[in-house]
Amino acid sequence: MPTNQKDNPAPDPTVSEPKPSDIQASSPPAVPTQTAQQIVNTYIHALREYNDTKDVAQQLIGLVAENRGVPVSKIYEDEEYGVTSKD
Q1: Which of 21, 52, 70, 82 has its CA 20 to 30 A from that of 31?
Q2: Hey, CA dihedral for 65, 66, 71, 73, is it positive or negative?
Q3: Three-state SS for 32?
Q4: Which helix (H) or strand (E) is 79 found in, with range?
Q5: Low-confidence residues of the chain: pLDDT under 70
């Protein structure tokens, strides 16, 4: 049976075979040093810290807006402090 060009496409000249020096023996998977619950607790703690920091920043921006007599949205629009309403 004749071979079809679609069944056996020409090899891609840009793809090269790996050299023996490129192939490394695979090492066993790393053993986790923390349990899943410990990892989750770490992320929860970091998220709470982030939220607390963001709340303080929002309050400071509110104080700046109040001091200037402008709405908070104006502070965000000016991007003077490197934050926008999307942050």
Answers
A1: 21
A2: positive
A3: coil
A4: none
A5: 1-25
